Amino acid sequence: MTQSPEDLIKKIEGISKKDADLIREAYGFAESIHGNTKRYSGEPYFNHVFETAKTITEFGMSPDTVIAGLLHDSIEDEGVSEEEIERRFGKDVLFLVDGVTKLGKVRFRGAERHVGSLQKLFLATTKDIRVLIIKLADRLHNMKTLKYVPDGKRVRIAKETMEVYAPIAHRLGMGKLTGELQDLAFPYIYPEDYEKVKKLAEPKRAEKNRSLSKMHKILSKELKKERIHNVQTDYRLKHLYSIYEKLKRKDFDIDRVYDISALRVLVPTVSDCYKVLGIVHSIWRPLPGRIKDYIAFPKPNGYQSIHTTIFTGEGEIAEIQIRTYKMHEEAEFGIASHVSYKHNRSDISKIKLPWFGDKAPTKKKEMPSEEIPEWVREIASSEDEMPEIEEFYSNLKFDFFRDRIFVFTPLGDVVDLPVDSSPIDFAYRIHTDVGNHVFGVKVNGKMVSLDEKLNNGDIVEVITKEKSSPSRKWLEYAHTAFAKRHIKNYIQKNRKRD
């Protein structure tokens, strides 16, 4: 495999000569320190750090992050001193390499060490999100070469990827990476189901693509006629693991999965998205209840797009996705698109991070700690009040890696919660003081009990009274670890008895 530092440099938009020279130096340094070390595949170990750095450039990250990708195994595996890394490449690179090194010291083996490692992962992330992005890039290449790993380790690594890294990538809005990680882990965890889904999906994908090709020609002609300019259309193939997830809900009937392939339309502006939707529906009849507007109501991980499922007129059903170019970049790369090097430094203060907060990144750091997603902070904050191991892992899977719902305040503010959350969970998500003084709750204008399950789209109004306070019964009503923790703290602090 022929590779060079130029393969990395050419992918970084607007890179300075100084940064390009530093990448060349880091490339040569990493190549020399890893020397003749081989991986299980027999290839040079250097190939791994190079591929990690290359993925980081594809995420659009800065030269410092790319350099840290090249050096991420230099301290742990090759014994390079922190002083040497700082002297050669600066404090920022050392900080990132050190963060990734610390994450590598505890493996995901056994419940206790598994949970400890998860907490270290999120604790490091609260200091700088780039540490997690490097770790995800590292994991992606490890999964691509998993077939060379000894049998005994493969399933463990694949499960760890499916249960931890893919859900994290999903919550960070990194759709492309999520799908890749899941598809790479799928055949090792569920080999029989993998073969079954592959056999069902491949012929269907080919059939759908022929249909989408016809639709593409028809739609392109209409968009040109309606003077919608700067349009890009392509086909999107649904990841195999995503098809598997849908098939499980559809009794493995492949004909009931409409979005195996989808026609994707990219346009410059939000208003263009709605114009295209109108044109699509003027050509093809939409399926009732199958129009999803994730532009007006983004998914909890920030994903925005319009999805519509239509009758093609040839006895088939197809999905069309419409979004802006910016939305597409965010759907593919999530949080990485917000901290990328692609933005000019003069423009960086204008970047809005709608699901992280409104403070703009400073020039000194790409992502100040204030911009770290709140859910990451919550996991890390539990380090000082560690629950039982099983409880922690159960809470983690419920609170952060589970499907989400959108509910609204009476003023129209959006609150995202895990499926099956109650009004108590909602109240504590609004504010601790609101949660501590819940007296009653209205959902869609009607009074409901505190253990009512909230549904997507509910409008929730919390009625508070100063004298109202948490009781132990509330622990049965609450589902999120966040709410339960505050209820327990209040009861303990005030020493109240039921």
UniProtKB/TrEMBL annotation:
Write down the InterPro entries for this protein, in alphabetical order: Beta-grasp_dom_sf, HD/PDEase_dom, NT_sf, RelA/Spo_fam, RelA_SpoT, TGS, TGS-like, TGS_RelA/SpoT
Q: Where are the transmembrane segments?
A: none
- SMART domains named among the record's database cross-references: HDc (SM00471), RelA_SpoT (SM00954)
Q: Which Gene Ontology BP annotations are present?
A: guanosine tetraphosphate metabolic process
Q: Which residues form the TGS domain?
A: 403-464
In which domain of life is the source organism classified? Bacteria
Q: What does this protein do?
A: In eubacteria ppGpp (guanosine 3'-diphosphate 5'-diphosphate) is a mediator of the stringent response that coordinates a variety of cellular activities in response to changes in nutritional abundance.
Q: Which family does it belong to?
A: Belongs to the relA/spoT family.
Would you tell me the protein name for this molecule? Answer: TGS domain-containing protein
Q: Which organism is it from?
A: Candidatus Campbellbacteria bacterium CG22_combo_CG10-13_8_21_14_all_36_13
Q: What is the lineage of its organism?
A: Bacteria, Candidatus Campbelliibacteriota
